[in-house]
Amino acid sequence: MKHVQEYRSKLVSAEQAVKAVQSGNWVDYNFGQAQPVVLDKALAARKVDLHNVKVRGGLMFRPLTIVEEDPSREHFCYSSWHLSGYERQLSDRGLCNYIPMIYRNMPLFYRKSLEVDVAMFSVAPMDENGFFNFSLVNSASKAITERAKIVILEVNENLPVIAHGKENAIHISDVDYVVEGDNPELPVINPAQSSETDNAIARLILGEISDGATIQLGIGALPNAVGTMIAESDLKNLGMHTEMLVDAYMVMDRVGKLTNTAKKIDKGYGVFSFCAGSKSLYDWVRDNDTLASVPIDYSNAPHIMAQNDNLVTINNCIEVDLFGQVTSETSGSRQISGTGGQLDFLTGGYLSHGGKSFICFSSTFTDKRSGQLRSRILTGLPEYSVVTNPRTQAHYLVTEWGIADLAGRSTWERAERIINIAHPKFRDKLIQGAERLGIWRKTNKKL
Q1: Which residue out of 87, 154, 167, 243 is catalytically annotated?
Q2: What is the pLDDT of residues 160-211, one digit of tens each?
Q3: Do residues 393 and 326 touch, judged by C-beta distance below 8 A?
Q4: Does 15 participate in catalysis according to the annotation?
Q5: All structural domains of the chain
Q6: What is the DSSP letter of 290?
Q7: SS3 label, residue 157
Q8: Phi/psi at 93 (nearest 5 deg)?
Q9: What is the rounded CA–CA span in Å between residue 137 and residue 293?
Q10: Residue 145 — left, alpha, or beta (φ > 0 → left; ψ -120 to 50 → alpha)?
Q11: CA-to-CA distance for 405 and 413, rounded, in angstroms?
Q12: What is the Cα–Cα distance from 261 to 352, expressed in whole angstroms?
């Protein structure tokens, strides 16, 4: 009863809650499905009273009213930890800045470096013990609330409770205001349709996975193709340790592949930090006793994930150069997404006993402007491209033409192996590029 009374004493309208925001404040919207909805609209309605309010968020799936109604950015300045498709459009319009980070550092950034005047984001309803579950987003939720001077929670009854985990809830005593929102349906991100090229790459990776492996899947059609193919394979007794919980894990679980019993840590639990996918996935997650929600500095810590033997990490990228440098977030100077946890899992997978870290990509793409076929493997990355994975951490690169193991290889060995998985149409030109760079030997194979 005490918790209920405290809840009622802190229950206010969205319009009342956002009066806590002052000009010049730092406001935090958290990440992904924690995005506030009614609070965002109420804050935007105050724009004439506010100037230079800096707002952080990340992977926002709904339109942001504070951005759409303030195209001059005079009142609100929005920045993102990781661009969703919507935020990419905002970035292209000059309405969103990217915040560079390696994902595992996100809680540390809040605890050591960042200022948060007001935190406002969505959570599941309060339980009988006075706790609000962080639901589908646990990346840095606890760290944000610890840092914030004022905490405002927007309750959404559609957010499922994750039964197990670490730092996955906040108590009513640590909350300043509660707003009961409109309980909007959660944004659905249905699995991307895989191409025949994706399936060819997935088949190559499938041959590298053994029974009892722990699997990490990134976002996109390629990792989803691998997950679907795993579900249809003879593999068994698999585990889950990932930053993002996607539909492919549900598919694996439903056919009995995902048991989590061979894991060395968190045995019996599929570990994740945030979740985005289909409505079926959200229904599967709700009160699922086999899942554990953890902060990103746990799920993405290489020394933690590597305690699981045979950890296989699968992510995709945009372009690769002949040195083995990988960009997974920019096209030249254009920000496409973000670093995310790719480098975290690239490192942790290789540290794992028997583990492997795969960076996958189609060897070519069709340029939308010219209609011409382009190679994703280049002599050098385009000007202003951001290196997501340095050449020193490049291990396995995979295209539909094969797998290139770069670990411990010299520059001329790398050039040969990378060109070997390029589309045949571009190999001669890439060899010429390697010769110009001085990383092609006369004894190299003429591919």
Answers
A1: 243
A2: 999 899 999 999 999 999 999 889 999 998 887 888 999 999 999 999 999 9
A3: no
A4: no
A5: 6-180 (3.40.1080.10), 196-437 (3.40.1080.20)
A6: T
A7: coil
A8: -90, 5
A9: 8
A10: alpha
A11: 10
A12: 17
